[in-house]
Specification:
The structure is a homotrimer of 203-residue chains. Helix content of chain A is 48%, strand content 19%. The first copy, chain A, has 203 residues and is an alpha+beta fold. Chain A has a domain of 125 residues: RutC-like (60s Ribosomal Protein L30, Chain: A, 2-Layer Sandwich). Chain A has a 5-stranded mixed sheet. In chain A, strand 1 and strand 2 form a beta hairpin. In chain A, helix 2 packs parallel to helix 3. The interface between A and B is large, with 34 and 42 residues. Chains A, B, C: This is Endoribonuclease L-PSP/chorismate mutase-like domain-containing protein.
């Protein structure tokens, strides 16, 4: 009958809609599972990368200096979203004796480049303390390096390379940063180099 | 009959789906109302906090200097999302007479620290003009302080503390910033201190 | 009959729901089409703006210098979201001969302002290489200009105006930036000016 036909059609429509909803639900569940797998995968990769960076530090024979203390009434870092603003860091080696001197007068450019390396390592000590794990470093975006030097000294880039090379060696591509290197006639505590940084991290 | 049963079932399925949709709509409306309440609550909290900061300024006996004017063809601020980049600010007290001098020559470190305080207060005047209400300041993330000084002067941190302490006193934890303090042989208009800032705000 | 009535109602409900779904689908398609139109419109506006900026450059008689090379082991830029951190740029004119000198000694403030303009144009060359199209520049947020000068020189703002004016001329309001201008006793390769930038772009 026509009546019967109408009922059958209406039920077919309902079945199709239920089927369609079931498919949607299944896809949603699949998507959620896939996301969970991604997270698990990321965690696994995190562990692998962690071992990698810590291993790289020891492979390079690098011992991080102890965490520095602010030389005034400020903080070593400030977090804005996934961005970390870092204070100007000074060249404190692991022995705790701050490097001092003015390039072209009481310290050579070569030794100032070593000072720049220590600034970078102090930045990395701060990152480790702040982020817990150096594998949370996503990108070293920016360094500004100030070189305490005599008038006429013009090789600030070579000095600050001591820091830039260190970032590349340790973090690889994540250590590739934009940079300014400038001279100055005077720095805090008569250090030869002061370096500040902007770093992106993952939560 | 079987026919009747089928019809009843199909109608039950339709009713259930309509009910499910009604529940979803109700939840959506509830979520929207809840969001509205949150906004109202935030506004109320904003009012309370506003009273607090303005009161703190008067409790500290601080009168903000008049809004500065750019010393060149630039702007005092630039907004990027919830971030505000601030130009280098100079030490202009409320009397409008710019502080001048080179530390170690024509101005003492103590007076330069006062100049640094005025730089901070000029930054705060700019923030008030830009944000309308100082309670919209979420965080002072970064200061860079340049100290005009003779060769060999090495107490730039003490000078810039004049600004950092001011930020802490006024904004509390929201005033805790990362910082660089460096020397320089020359600054605009022969000021002893110039300070720039990066500040997060809420819309 | 009652039976017949029930069937008719249930079918009406199904029809209404199908109609409702059809309307939703239509609206979704309309939204998608509208979005596509917006994109097309943006592209068209992009082309118009592109012509505009490129035309403005040629109207101003400006030829961009060739893309610079980093003077050390760093990158010219680093991307963080829609933000671009740019390295300190030097005053390299189109002839490839780097401008040198110390203001107040071997170069005049007027020539140093021309050097600042070349720094800005080198920044723009980097932006073009990095973003493909200068119309992707959303905002020049921040410049920091370092002026290599003798002690007592106090017109750094006038020197750095050479860069700021260039940004305004080329980008209009998108070129309005916050700025710091400071002196220094020494810069890389003895240039009179070094300028770094923070720029927002669209993907």
């Amino acid at each position: 009958d026509k009546k019967k036909e109408i009922i059958i059609r209406s039920i077919q429509v309902i079945k199709m809609r239920l089927l369609s909803q079931t498919i949607k639900s299944s896809m949603a569940i699949a998507a959620r599972l896939s996301a969970r797998n991604r997270i698990t995968l990321n965690n696994r990769m995190g562990v692998i990368r962690h071992v990698h960076i810590e291993k790289r530090l020891s492979d390079l024979g690098i011992e991080l200096p102890p965490l520095g203390t602010p030389k005034g009434s400020y903080a070593l870092t400030s977090r804005q979203g996934n961005l970390l603003y870092l204070a100007g860091h000074l060249p404190m080696p692991t022995d705790g004796k701050l490097m001092v001197g003015k390039v072209g007068d009481t310290i050579s450019p070569e030794d100032a480049a070593i000072a720049a390396k220590w600034c970078a390592l102090n930045i990395i000590s701060t990152l480790k303390a702040e982020l817990g794990d150096l594998d949370n470093v996503v990108k070293i975006h920016k360094l500004v390096g100030f070189v305490n030097c005599v008038d006429g000294f013009d090789a600030q880039p070579k000095v600050i390379n001591g820091a830039s090379d260190t970032m590349f060696e340790i973090f690889g591509d994540a250590g590739r940063h934009a940079r300014s290197a400038v001279g100055t006639n005077a720095l805090p505590l008569n250090v030869p180099v002061e370096i500040e940084a902007i770093v992106e991290f993952k939560g």
